[in-house]
Amino acid sequence: MSAEPDGPEDRLRRFATIWSRALYPVTATSLTRPEFESQLLPLARQLRQDLAERVFRAADCEAVGAALVATHCTEPEALSRTLDVVDAYLVLYCGEEAEPDEAGRAGGVGEREELRARCSRIQHAVAAGFARALRERTRAEQEAISRAALEARGTVAEALHASEARFRAVFHGAAIGIGIADLEGTVLEVNDALIRMFGGLEHQLRGRNVAEWTHPDDSPHVWKLYEELVRGDREHYRVEKAFYRPDGTVLWTNLTVSLLRDADGVPQYQLALMEDTTERRLLNLRLRYEATHDALTGLPNRTLFFERLEKALAAGESARFGLCYLDLDGFKTVNDSLGHAAGDRLLVEVADRLQSCATAPGEMVARLGGDEFVALTTGPDTEHEVDELAGRIMHALSTPIRVEGRELTVRGSIGIVEGPAAERGAAEVLRSADITMYRAKHAGGNRYELADPEADARAITRHGLTTALPVALERGEFFIEYQPLVHLGDGSVRGAEALVRWLHPQHGVISPDRFIPLAEHTGLIVPLGRWVLEESVRQARTWEAVTGADQAGLPLRVNVNLSPCQLTHPGLVSDTVEILERAGLAPGALCLEVTESALIGADDDLLKPLRRLAEMGVDIALDDFGTGYSNLANLRRLPVSVLKLDRAFTQGMQHFPADPVDLKIVEGIVSLAHSLDLAVTVEGVETGAQADQLRELGCDTAQGWYYARPGPPDRLHELALADAT
Amino acid sequence: MERPDWAPPGIDITVPSVARMYDHYLGGSHNFEVDREAARKAMEFMPGLPKIMQANRAFMRRAVRFSVDEGITQFLDIGSGIPTFGNVHEVARRAHEGARVVYVDHDPVAVAHSRAVLEGNDQAAAAYADLRKPRDILGSSEVKALLDLDRPVALLLVAILHFVEDAYDPYAAVAELRDALAPGSLIAVTHASYEGIPVPQEQADGTVGVYRDIRTPLIMRSRLEIARFFEGYDMVEPGLVPMPHWRADTELAEEDPWSFSGFAGVGRKR
To answer: Where is the EAL domain (chain A) (predicted)?
Structure first.
């Protein structure tokens, strides 16, 4: 829109431009200055009209002031500048149009005065309008922002409410117990889980003081940590703690306590999280009990006993201990004859009785396994106490035990070890007690023995050998030496006695005297004897093959010892037959030696296998003849073909002249033997004089150092060959 | 203990709000004495703060008009503050009848007031969310209801990024928003800087101190640092410039010297 230069419209625009330039710097509008000017233009037009109106209309002027506020001219400076602009330029730019006619303009001082006055009134009205509008706007905006603040608070409060509801749900629904207390320890809040843990009564918890919940099992640091936390020196701690429930039962918990601080970091509350571990703990205790107690008798087991023993041994320099190691005598028989159930009932009763023997503080009884029990005492005077304890145990066992309607007499052997702690380890102590117990058992049982180091050492070897025997056979630690049997008539080698030896990896060669009894005791004698028989038979067959058939039909024989155990073994005959057959050796080349004592009082049952062997052609020799109760009358019924005179008879002939009594006895025996068609072999021939004597007395065969010591099979072969040539 | 996300902060009108201080700078009365008190303190060091705010408003107005000229009629105004006059929806609606606007602010009072102002307006809405959590913004019911993110949007970040400390990684937030926008979308940014302020930096620091004291630190960034917000965007002419220089529609001589403080720019997503 263009205006005529210096025409009324152009002058109005120029006024608006001046006005906008004055106002623009003090407005906050985002309009550009020209845009802003265009907003002022209608207001300028209104002012021009107000100036020209015959009747002054204040309301119109006030509307201009209000419009200024509406265009965001809210600074007081905007009003001031507006009034300045109106005052200086309104009449100047818009006064002419306001004049009623041209004439008035010429003579215009009066008119001008009037215009000035009108302008003044316009300013007053604009100011009033501006002020009123600004007041209204300010009020409205203040109201709006306050309402918004309230609204927002409401929203926030709602959200907080929702959030608190959620927190409450978490708090009360949590499976873990939660409690909040102030720093004095007063409990302020507890959740449902915590209430349940404590037995279900809220009032028993809320308002109580945390410090009241002491428990004898509290470790000292539990309350030290608590103090540190409420002092603000610690942020949290975690302990295992027990509580008494109101009903007196115990609640075990994993307790985590945290310090809650406010926004400025000042400690405010303590938060406790509790997990009920009572059942888990009971389960653990139960598992621990099961792991440390014998299921059958309920007594502490080997594990627990070792723990206690180790503790006792670690008790310090001055402490002493006493230990009884009990093994029931003949328990195996009970088990074998009455069955395991009866055996178990017997053990339970024994356990009960033992338990009642060790009731003093520091005393305990445990079952190590099988029928082995131990009793431990750690009292002040163990030397005396352990004796008493052993006495009580023996006494407790003395009353027969009734099992399945039978009165069983139970006896036991006890090994006692007593001494200062800290000298030996648990295993060593127990071994000593075990050995001592065996000593008591070997001494006949039903007694107790006190450990002594020497006996221990002997027993340890014995014990060691016993345990090493089975392995020794597997590992081939046994070997056989052969001692020649020489015909006294012509000095020829007729055979040899097989003698078993043990080459122990540590102890070297061990003689049969030491291990045969052990083997008999453990039953290993059966497989060992069988092995010896096999080896010897195989050896005899080898000799036979080497010397050949040209030896005038007299093969080298082999003598093998049979132990009493083997005699009763049902497989004796069949085993022997099988071994001979497998080796291809004639039964006549084998002689089995049986001790006289093994056959004393032998009945037909026992003799039957020997008879069968004899019928097959196997020679049976009666070993060590003359040492036992030699029942000469009995000789007739025995299936023996050889008598081996014990070395006791030959000892008297070692020197010249020989003891005449010995001579007479041997002569008599030889005569008797020959009359029964028995050959006589003498052992222990060590001198030529002996050999001569015995030859004269009519003995058939001899063996002894005079001829040869026991040695490897090859040497015998050499001897035999030498003899043959 | 960290306050959970779903628990809103409390409203404490005894603490100054930058949104209400902004309103005060612009001559409004949507503010309380605490706000005015803080604003007066800030103005002791930088008396031209109102002019800077005015320049921000003017830039935004031009940027909105530019966007509409570019065919964009969806606006996401983050950090919208208290609606006073010349608001985006007014400017946009005047330029295009169907323009849709979502205002976002994390000041609950500003949001409440915006909602009151927008009552009955089905083309504009205010969302309560925080620039530091773009996912909240993008997932808000207002954005979902009003904006079609498959089509270009004008993202307005006017006088907001300088209130996000590096610790909250404003660059990552801006990048996340960018990634959610369709190619061709625009981003309009103004940012405070020591560059262009007509007083020595030491003096301007007084103002920075005031904002720090009210726990809304004002982060002055260099032009280069501000330019990094446009990663993934092509700068629209004339680039990142003092606010009055951006597509000015008046003579620069008429501009107040303070309005040249800081930078403004518009970018177009590739």
So the answer is: 462-724
CB contact under 8 A, A33 and B30: no
Residue in this structure with the two tokens 């001082």, named with its chain if needed: A109
pLDDT at residue A396 above 70? yes
Task: Give the tens place of pLDDT for each residue, A512-544.
Answer: 887 888 888 777 888 899 999 999 999 998 888
Inside any domain, residue A227: yes
Q: Which of A433, A428, A313, A325 is nearest to A372 (CA)?
A: A325
Whether A579 and A650 share a structural domain? yes
CB atoms within 10 A of CB A484: 25
Cα separation values, A646 from A596, A650, A651, A682, B176, Å:
10, 8, 9, 7, 112
3-state secondary structure at position A376: strand
Which helix (H) or strand (E) is A503 found in, with range?
strand A493-504
ipTM of the complex: 0.89
Task: For residue A546, give Cα distances in angstroms to A210, A335, A714, A717, B76.
Answer: 100, 53, 11, 8, 118
Best of B54, B64, B94 to substitute, by most chain A Cβ atoms within 10 angstroms, is: B54
Number of Cβ pairs closer than 8 Å across A and B?
101
Q: Cis omega before residue A657 (within 30°)?
A: yes
Give the pLDDT band (50/70/90) at residue A37.
very high
Condensed to tens digits (0 to 9), the pLDDT of residues B134-150 reads 999 999 999 999 999 99
> A319-333, A633-647, B89-103: which range is least confident on average?
A633-647
Contacts of B90 in chain A (CB under 8 A): none
Instruction: With CB atoms and an 8 Å threshold, state whether B113 touches A148.
Output: yes
Q: Which of A433, A451, A469 is the last residue of a domain?
A: A451
**Test the B interface: residue of A32, A72, A145 with most B CBs within 10 Å:** A145
User: Residues near A269 by Cβ (< 8 Å), separated by ≥ 6?
Assistant: A180, A181, A182, A183, A188, A259, A260
Lowest mean pLDDT of A52-66, A498-512, A605-619, name the range: A498-512
Same domain, residue pair A194 and A213: yes
3-state secondary structure A406-469: EEECCEEEEEEEEEECCCCCHHHHHHHHHHHHHHHHHCCCCEEEECCHHHHHHHHHHHHHHHHH
Say whether both A489 and A547 belong to one domain: yes
Residue A157 lies in a domain: no
Nearest CA in chain B to A35: B250
Q: Rounded to the nearest 5°, which phi and psi values hold at A647?
A: -65, -15
* Structural domains of chain A, count: 4
A512 and A547 part of one domain: yes
Q: What are φ and ψ of residue B135, in 5° steps?
A: -65, -35
Q: pLDDT class for A2, splitting at 50, 70, 90?
A: low
Domain ranges of chain B: 51-205+217-269
Q: How far is it, in rounded angstroms, from Cα A115 to Cα A94? A: 10
pLDDT value at position A65? 95
A186: contact with B, CB 8 A cutoff? no
User: What is the residue type of B110?
Assistant: A
Looking at the fold, whether A552 and A686 belong to one and the same domain comes out as yes
Task: State the CATH architecture for B51-205+217-269.
Answer: 3-Layer(aba) Sandwich (3.40)
Residues A630 and A714 in one domain: yes
**Do A618 and A484 share a domain, yes or no?**
yes
- Has residue A158 been placed in a domain? no
Q: What percent of chain A has pLDDT over 70?
A: 93
DSSP run (H or E) holding A242: strand A236-244
**Could you give the CA distance from residue B169 to residue A521 in angstroms, rounded to a whole number?**
89
- The per-residue pLDDT for range A298-310, each reduced to its tens digit, is 999 998 999 999 9
Do A416 and A547 lie in one domain? The reply is no
Q: pLDDT tens digits, residue range B147-183?
A: 999 999 999 999 999 999 999 999 999 999 999 999 9
**Of A262, A258, A225, A219, which Cα lies nearest the Cα of A241?**
A219
Segments forming the whole domain that contains residue A559: 478-724
